[in-house]
UniProtKB/TrEMBL annotation:
Protein's UniProt name: DUF421 domain-containing protein
Membrane topology: Multi-pass membrane protein
Keyword Zinc: no
Keywords: Cell membrane, Membrane, Transmembrane, Transmembrane helix
A Pfam family the protein falls into: DUF421
YetF C-terminal domain boundaries: 96-219
UniProt source species: Anaeroselena agilis
Cited PANTHER family: UPF0702 TRANSMEMBRANE PROTEIN YCAP
Length: 240
């Protein structure tokens, strides 16, 4: 059976198919580790080609029991290695491997030749502007088609919402929520990062659940405003 799994066979049993699929799935996970986070975001043309190629290749080989497992593994890891190399070259020499942002609107004026060059119709452009909450061209200062294929819109100052600094409103520092209890386990590192200790946490839990400790609570999150979100996993949610 081992030889049939590796070399492929039209009479491959169901168990062998399961093993082949599991191996190919693990290989895909390893390939994404080689290509790193850049590949997951599909930031450039060659990243997209590699992602599409690997996925289609793996899918075909998964459903074809007669294909060689070794051959497809070699192809997957060759794809991943070449992609890692091209991504490295892209970082070092971005103009060699990738495209640059194309201006579609400059100083409020639509650039027709760039629309034609990028095969974007006026209806496409207006639809993208509406998605960016810029329904009127008179509100727009500049629009760029990024190398990722996304539209980036910069509104005119008069059409942009005022910032807190412009309105002389004090801005609170950016604070991310910290999960301090999950499934009855206290996350000591998160608690310390938030500036609190276990004694403080147990006191907050007692205030909500007098008969319980932190290890009896399903979920506890210190939110951005400093309040503690608590859920026993069975009852109503409380904030302490």
């Amino acid at each position: 059976m081992f030889e049939e799994i590796v070399s492929g066979s039209k009479d491959l049993p169901l168990g062998g198919t399961v093993v082949r699929v599991a191996i190919l799935y693990i290989a895909l996970i390893m390939a994404t580790r080689i290509m790193r986070e850049r590949q997951v975001g599909i930031l450039s043309g060659h990243n997209y080609l590699v992602a599409a190629g690997i996925v289609s290749l793996a899918a075909v080989r998964m459903v074809n029991p007669k294909s060689s497992l070794i051959e497809v593994l070699v192809i997957i890891f060759t794809y991943a290695t070449v992609n890692a190399l091209t991504s490295y070259i892209d970082i070092k020499y971005p103009r060699l491997m990738d495209r640059i942002a194309v201006p579609l609107v400059l100083k409020g004026q639509v650039i027709k030749k760039n629309l034609d060059a990028t095969h974007i119709t006026l209806d496409n452009l207006l639809a993208q502007l509406r998605l960016k909450e810029a329904g009127n061209l008179t509100e727009v200062e500049e629009v760029y088609l990024e190398p990722t294929g996304k539209i980036n819109v910069m509104k005119k100052p008069a059409a942009s919402p005022p910032t807190k600094s412009q309105m002389n409103i004090a801005a609170n520092p950016v604070v991310f929520p910290e999960v301090v209890i999950y499934d009855g386990r206290v996350q000591e590192a998160s608690l310390k990062r938030a500036g609190y200790d276990r004694r403080w946490l147990e006191g907050r839990v007692k205030a909500v659940y007098p008969e319980k400790t932190a290890t009896d609570v399903f979920l506890g999150i210190i939110e951005t405003d400093g309040s503690l979100y608590l859920s026993s996993g069975e009852e109503a949610v409380f904030r302490a």
